[in-house]
Amino acid sequence: MVKSSYNESLIELLDTLTIQLDRYAAIFIFLFGVVGNVLNIFVLSQRTFHSNSCAWIFLTASVVNLVSILSGLITIMIGSWTTNPTNTIGWICKLRAHLVFSTRTMAPWLIVLATIDRWLLSSIDAIRRRKSTLKNAQRWAAVIITLSILLYAQMFYCYEANLTDAPLSCYDKTVICRYLTDLSFVSITVMIPVVLMILFGLLTIINARESQRRVQSLTRGNHVSGTNRSSRPTAGSSQRKPTRRTEQSLLRMLLVQVLVFCILTIPLSLDRFYSTLYKDNGSATILE
User: Which residues cross the membrane (predicted)?
Assistant: First the structure.
């Protein structure tokens, strides 16, 4: 009797904490995310970045992240004060689920695309460098967006409102749908992009070090052969310096995004994977 009363009090406390987190933490995340992505869109829309493939990918990712935040957090904030419309209205539940999962998939794959673009551009192979173009970036971004939309098209069938036997009122209506959604999220949205980000990030760093060694060796050779020549820099070298600084800044921005994405999403993917394979009582489930 005492244990039952303690459990009820604990559940009530956790419910209260959840409501307070949804009410105030969601507002902070919403404002921080919206302001940050709007600033990214404003900066990356400047004429300086119009022909830069990596900057264009970052711009597209910022738009996608903004859509993800707006579609994901607005209903949560509404639900912390009144009835969440996704819990009772079927089409809103389905549309929100599709927008949230598809945009969450687009964003990491766009970062993967940016990582590959930096790897190509930093390569000492001229053929690879020529593949880093704005046209190729736009083409592959369109492929990523299209496949992400198609990947979670089942949300319009799987998700349903007014559920009573699910963790949330707006949730997958069958066990098969839950397995499909969770495994797709863990593998395609999180784990595969993380592996590719780390792989091409390391390859980009290796390319950058090789390029630095080549530049240093060429500089030493030019210094020895040109001791009697004028040391005044040419117009071409002075024009390349701002471009080089821009590329280095974009590379640092990319590596920071990869690191933050890995830190924040790997624990979530492990939790979803565990919850998919095991029931609440800890016994393993069989995927049939």
Answer: 24-44, 56-81, 101-120, 140-157, 183-206, 250-270
